[in-house]
Amino acid sequence: MMAGWFAAAKATYRGDPNDEVAEEEQKGWSKVIPRSLGVFALVDIANLLVVFLTRNYVCDVPLRTWLLGGILLGGPTDLIIKGVAWALKPRYKYYKLQVVNCRDVQDSDFEIDKVQMYDEFGREIDGFGIEQRKEGNAWIISMNYPRMISSYRVITSATMPAANDPITWSLWVSNNKRTWRMIDEQDDGGVPLTRASPSQLITDLISINEDASFRQAFLAELIATGAALAWLTIGSAWIASGSETCVDSAPELWYYSFLVAVLTWSCLGTVTIGLIVSAVAMILLGVKTP
């Protein structure tokens, strides 16, 4: 089971190569900003190198502790926040479309081609490891690992008449096929009379409305940001108090820490001023919407 969850996490961020996915190439700031953040990874590597090279230096100010703490509050904390957001999302391995009524036949005589499902990024979930089959008056979708769906639609049968189309159903989910939970109920799913055609896209799922992962991750991000700012302030105080002793006993460590602190405060100030100027410019030069 754990292997399945690890595979789900990898596919969430990188995409499953077996899925039929048509994604647009990232453009503009959505492409520039993530790549520019790679500079911080280089800073973390430099911090580790300095900490290692100055491990035998004696200094009464814990500058190495400050550098190591800065590393932990960077990439590792970001991964933890992403993990929190991912783990709290509603992900299930088994989905069951329970048919209640058909157009003109018994519910157990329903026929469809498949259920088309989409993940949280709007990518169609299809390909290797996805099995769909009929069991009595239900249509079972089994996935190779737990996945979240944000929407779905029913594809009508290509061979059976419209009388066999389901018109009323409920969608159930489970991770063990023993305990099931209903996440959607349709009195009229908008199934067309034409053959091999999709129904209307159903997006208002109970699991999506109850999803609190974004709020929890945002709260964790705020806490991490506050902790990082506090750690930067503490480090600046340590650097200032060590200006008389560490400059002589550990010059490389002190000057490097001083440079990191100055550049960090400068970047924060530049970004803050840039945001203020951008907001003012948008207000003064922006076009008002009717």
Q: What's the structural blueprint in terms of helices and strands?
A:
Elements: H1 2-14, H2 29-36, H3 38-53, H4 63-72, H5 75-88, E1 92-102, E2 112-118, E3 124-125, E4 131-135, E5 138-147, E6 151-156, E7 166-174, E8 181-186, H6 206-209, H7 213-241, H8 246-249, H9 251-285
Antiparallel strand pairs: 1-5, 1-7, 2-3, 2-6, 4-5, 7-8
Query: How are strands sequenced across the largest beta sheet?
Result: 4-5-1-7-8
Oligomer kind: single chain
The end-to-end span amounts to 53 Å
What's the rounded overall pLDDT mean?
83
Query: Can you tell me the number of structural domains?
Result: 2
Q: Runs with pLDDT <50, length 5+?
A: 17-25
Number of helices: 9
Inertia-based shape? elongated
State the share of residues found in helices, binned by percent. Answer: 40-55%
Radius of gyration: 27 Å
